[in-house]
Amino acid sequence: GRLRIRCGRERLGRKHQTCTSPVVRLVHSVLGLSLALVGTQSAYGQQTDTVPGLGTIVREMPTDLWRFLSVDTAIVLGAGGAAAGIAHIWDDDLKQEVETSVRLNDALQPGNTYGSFPVQVVIGVGMYSLGRVFDSSPLGVAGADVMRAQFVSQMWVQALKFSVQRTRPDESDDLSFPSGHSASAFATAAVLRRHFG
C-alpha cells in the first residue's frame, strides 16, 4: 500500500524537505537538462590555445542568450513542455499519495547542495582560475564555458519560473518550475562532457 502524507515541512519532520512526486521530479530534470544542453554551446571550445579574459567571457554572454533561440531549442522545449503539461494532470493526486523513503531523500540531499547555482559558479570560476594560473588552456576554457553556461541557463530558467508561476509542493513560493538546480547541474555536466568526454 501507499503511505498517505501531506506535502509540508512540518509533516515530514525536516526543515527544508519537500515532497514531490517522482513524475514531477523527472519532468523538472528533463526540462533542466534540455535548457542546459541547448544553452551550452562553446564559442571557444577547442578553437583556441589561450584562456579568454573575463571581459571576453562577459561580452559573449548576451550573444549566448540569443543563441539559445533556435529550432533545436524549440523542439527540445516543446517536448519538455508537453511532458510537463501531461504530468501536471496528475499533480494533485500524486501530491496526496506518495511513497516516501527517508533513505532515498537522504541520498538525494547532496543534489540540493551541489546542484545549486552558487556551487556550480564556484566550480566554473575555480576551473577558470586554475587554468589562468597554471596556463592550462583546456581547463581555463572549460571553466569559462561553465560560467557562461550557468549564466545562460539561469537567465532562461528564472524567466520561465516567473512566467509559469508553479507553486512548490510545500507552498513556500510560486517558483518551482523549471528546476534551477537541475539546469545548473546539467549545464556544468554538458560543458564538462563537451570538453573532456
- Tally of strands: 0
Principal-axis shape: globular
Mean model confidence by pLDDT: 76
- H/E element order: HHHHHHHHH
Q: Rounded to an integer, what's the Rg over CA atoms?
A: 19 Å
Helical region count?
Answer: 9
Broad structural category: mainly alpha
The main pleated sheet reads as: none
SSE layout:
Elements: H1 9-12, H2 22-38, H3 54-67, H4 71-88, H5 91-96, H6 102-114, H7 117-133, H8 137-164, H9 180-196
Helix pairs in contact: 2-4, 2-9, 3-8, 7-8, 7-9, 8-9
What report would you give on this structure?
- With 197 residues, the chain is mainly α.
- The protein has 9 helices and no strands.
List keywords for this structure.
single chain, 197 residues, mainly alpha, 9 helices, 68% helix, globular
Short structural description:
The chain has 197 residues and is an all-alpha fold. It has helices spanning 9-12, 22-38, 54-67, 71-88, 91-96, 102-114, 117-133, 137-164, 180-196.
